[in-house]
Design brief:
Shape: rod-shaped
Helix content: 40-55%
Radius of gyration: 50 Å
Number of helices: 3
Order of helices and strands: EHEHH
Distance between the termini: 143 Å
Oligomer: single chain
Strand order of the largest sheet: 1-2
Low-confidence stretches: none
């Protein structure tokens, strides 16, 4: 097989194929190159397969990201664009759904904070009311009561 002297202009329209023929040999059989691929001689032992040729251009510098001149892949670009658009639409729907969830959680958090503040206010108000309703007994009252009890005890003990 020889390399091509000129490369075709449009590689994607290449219709070249290779035919590969396989012959199964039994034990001890030798290959006869002249009659190996004769269809009449081998019959069912000859298997054929056709391989499509895929041409790739010669190695060049990195391709330009901007199409130049007549260079256009509208079918490929269109399908890529459609896929990208579908991905963007799905991502935007998911993003909107997540934003709605975040907003709902924020509102729930705000309402719970308000409830907590109200509970703290009611508990602090009830504790301040309970402490103000009890009579306060100071250290001076206790000392005076102790002295009176001592004097009464002395008076009763001397009688």
């Amino acid at each position: 097989m020889q390399a091509q002297k000129e490369y075709p202009v449009d590689f994607s329209n290449c219709k070249d194929k290779f035919m590969v023929q396989i012959v199964e040999l039994g034990d001890g059989e030798q290959v006869d190159p002249g009659s190996t691929f004769n269809k009449d001689l081998k019959g069912d032992a000859l298997k054929e397969s056709r391989l499509r040729v895929v041409l790739e251009g010669p190695a060049a510098s990195a391709p330009s990201p901007v199409p130049e001149g007549e260079e256009s892949n509208t079918a490929v670009d269109g399908s890529r664009l459609k896929t990208a658009y579908n991905d963007l639409a799905a991502t935007s729907q998911e993003n909107n759904y997540l934003k709605a969830k975040v907003d709902k959680l924020k509102s729930e958090c705000d309402s719970l904070r308000k409830q907590l503040d109200n509970l703290q206010l009611t508990t602090s108000a009830s504790t301040s009311q309970a402490s103000s309703s009890r009579p306060k007994i100071g250290l001076l009252h206790i000392i005076i009561a102790a002295i009176i009890a001592f004097l009464i005890g002395q008076y009763i003990g001397n009688m």
